[in-house]
Amino acid sequence: SAPYNFHILNNLATISLERKNYLQADEWLNEALRINPRFEDALYNLSYSKAMQQKYEDALDILDQVPTNSERKKMFRQEIIKLRQNQGQH
After folding, report:
1. What's the Cα-to-Cα distance from 66 to each of 26, 39, 54, rounded to whole Å?
2. Quick check: 73 pLDDT over 50?
3. Domain spans, the chain
4. Which residue intervals of the chain are DSSP H helices?
5. If one looks up domain 6-88 in CATH, what number appears?
6. For residue 75, what are the contacts with CB-CB under 8 A and spacing of at least 6?
7. Which residues lie below 8 Å from residue 10, measured CB to CB, with a gap of 6+?
8. 8-53: per-residue pLDDT in tens?
9. Which pLDDT belongs to residue 31?
């Protein structure tokens, strides 16, 4: 079987995320990141997936690997921290 293009892998992961199938998404995303470790969309998606699994430290560590310090990255970090704080209140 031909190796997947990392964009295709990210698209498959996006579908898995929409279905809340986080472990499957993680597999696709880790594969995409093996091909292209600096692929920002895959890093954001993997960070999101970990946050949805309540693995907030993992989510933040992955977010730190995003090369571009953008407004998107800052907002994403704030969202993860907010989720983590809300989780602590239950």
Report:
1. 16, 8, 20
2. yes
3. 6-88
4. 6-18, 22-35, 40-52, 56-64, 71-88
5. 1.25.40.10
6. none
7. 28, 29, 32, 39, 41, 42, 45
8. 999 999 999 999 999 999 999 999 999 999 999 999 999 999 999 9
9. 96
